[in-house]
Design brief:
Layout (H helix, E strand, L loop, with lengths): L15 E5 L3 H13 L3 E5 L10 H6 L7 E4 L2 E4 L1 H12 L7 H34 L6 H22 L11 H13 L10 H11 L2 H6 L8
Parallel strand pairs: 1-2
Antiparallel strand pairs: 1-3, 3-4
Length: 220
C-alpha cells in the first residue's frame, strides 16, 4: 500500500516555494505539491520575458531553468529530483518498500530519458514556436515523432494492464502526465496508443491536476 496522505508543511512550518512557468517540467513539480497536500508559494518566472536570466534567479539555479524548489533554504532544481525529494520527505504517494521505490524511480528515469526530448521537440516546434511568432523546425518534429514510437508502444503495453505506472498512483505519475499533455498540443498520432491516452484522462480527472490548470495554456 502506497501512503496517500502527506504532511501539509515541512518540519519548520515554513511554506515551500516553487519557481515555475507554464511548461511541462515545472508542471510536474506543482502537480506533486498539490497531490501531497503541501502548502507552497508559486513564483512565476516568465521565460518569454527571459526572467530566468536575471541575476536573482541565476543565484538559485545557474543553469537558468525552472522548476526550482526552495524548502526553507534548501534549493533543488531538476523536476524529477524534486519529485523524488518530495516523496522521500513526506512519504506521500511514494512507496515505503525499497524495491517499490526503485520502480517508481525507474519510471522517473524512463520519462526523462525515453520521452521528454522527443515530446519537447514536437511540442516546442509545433506549439510554442508558432505562438511566439517564429516558425518551428519540421525536421525536429519528425525526429520527435519517430523517436516516440518505441517508448510509447512500451508504455501503452504497460498501461493496458495497470491503472498507473506503479499500479497505484505515485509521484512518478506526476513526472509523466504533464509531458503527455504537452504532446497533445502537437500533431502526434495517438491512435495506436489508446491505453496511454486513457491513462492521461485518468490523471486529468484528479482534483490536483485540475487545480494546476495544466490544460489551460497561456499562449492560446
Amino acid at each position: 500500500m502506497i501512503p496517500s496522505v502527506g504532511t501539509k508543511r515541512n518540519e519548520t512550518g515554513v511554506q515551500m516555494k516553487l519557481y515555475w512557468y507554464w511548461s511541462f517540467n515545472p508542471q510536474k513539480a506543482q502537480l506533486a505539491l498539490e497531490e501531497i497536500g503541501q502548502e507552497y508559494t508559486l513564483v512565476e518566472v516568465d521565460l518569454s520575458k527571459r526572467e530566468n536570466n536575471v541575476n536573482a534567479f541565476l543565484e538559485l539555479n545557474p543553469q537558468g531553468q525552472v522548476p526550482v524548489l526552495d524548502d526553507d533554504g534548501f534549493i533543488l532544481s531538476e523536476s524529477m529530483a524534486i519529485l523524488a525529494y518530495l516523496g522521500e520527505k513526506t512519504g506521500c504517494h511514494w512507496p515505503n518498500e525499497l524495491r517499490e521505490r526503485a520502480q517508481a524511480t525507474r519510471w522517473l528515469f524512463f520519462c526523462a530519458t525515453g520521452l521528454e526530448s522527443h515530446v519537447g521537440g514536437m511540442w516546442f516546434n509545433e506549439y510554442v514556436a508558432l505562438r511566439l511568432g517564429f516558425g518551428g523546425r519540421s525536421e525536429a518534429v519528425e525526429r520527435g515523432r519517430k523517436g516516440l514510437g518505441a517508448p510509447m508502444a512500451y508504455l501503452n503495453k504497460h498501461l493496458a494492464e495497470e491503472e498507473y505506472l506503479c499500479g497505484e498512483f505515485t509521484l512518478a505519475d506526476c513526472g509523466l502526465g504533464p509531458v503527455l499533455a504537452a504532446l497533445e498540443l502537437s500533431s502526434f498520432d495517438w491512435g495506436p496508443f489508446a491505453h496511454v491516452h486513457d491513462y492521461l484522462d485518468r490523471l486529468r480527472r484528479r482534483p490536483a491536476w485540475q487545480r494546476c490548470k495544466i490544460d489551460q495554456p497561456p499562449l492560446d
